[in-house]
Amino acid sequence: MNGPLGAGELRELIGTILLCLMGLFAAVWIVYRNWSGIKELCTDEDGNFDLLGGLERHFSGGGSSGGAQVSPEEVTADEDVMQRLIRQKGAQMADFDPAKDWIREHIIFHGRVQGVGFRYQAMYAARSFDLTGWVENLPDGSVEMEVQGTAVGIGKLLTHLQSGHWIRIDKMDMEEMAVVPDERGFGVRGY
Asked: Is residue 98 located within the same domain as residue 153?
């Protein structure tokens, strides 16, 4: 079609433009009417506005703005995960107690672990299980975590993450590290 638009084509083009403008106006109106809630949802603990992080936190919590609250009593550590965590430590220490003695693990998660609320699920769950450390997205699409606490707590965290709604963990590369004695809290690093 190289010539001028016919009357029907012109009407169709104008209708499409008006429909797009109405959709844009509706979106702006929704944001305007809900701006205080959006600001609250997307402001992180340091007071910084982070739209994508806020949405990730919101949806990782199943749609609740407070994030995913995990009840430690409702999660049981998977037996295979527990065996993996205590195998090396138990071999080193005859009196190792997975419910009391602290360990630290460096873990790289592979699979569908970015863009699905993984980091915030990890943060909320780790805090629920009294674990410390951090979690961060890596440029290759994997997620890196350092976590410390009891083997039982870490086992519950890993089991909880594997049961995430959109999360799919295909592989975990785990390496034991030295415990960081004065570490406090569990946080999300990176963008």
From this structure: yes
As averages over each run of 10 residues, the pLDDT of the chain (191 residues) reads 77 88 83 70 68 64 48 63 65 68 92 88 91 95 94 89 83 91 90 61
Domain range enclosing 31: 7-60
What is the C-alpha separation between 152 and 86, in angstroms, rounded?
Answer: 9
In degrees, rounded to 5, the angle at the alpha carbon of residue 82 between the alpha carbons of residues 88 and 74 is 155
Is 48 a residue of the active site?
Answer: no
**Selected catalytic residue, list 119, 127, 184, 189:** 119
Say yes or no: 97 and 147 in one domain: yes
Active-site residue identified among 11, 137, 168, 189: 137
In a domain, 1, yes or no: no
Q: What is the pTM of this model?
A: 0.60
34 a catalytic residue: no
Count the domains in the chain: 2
- Has residue 2 been placed in a domain? no
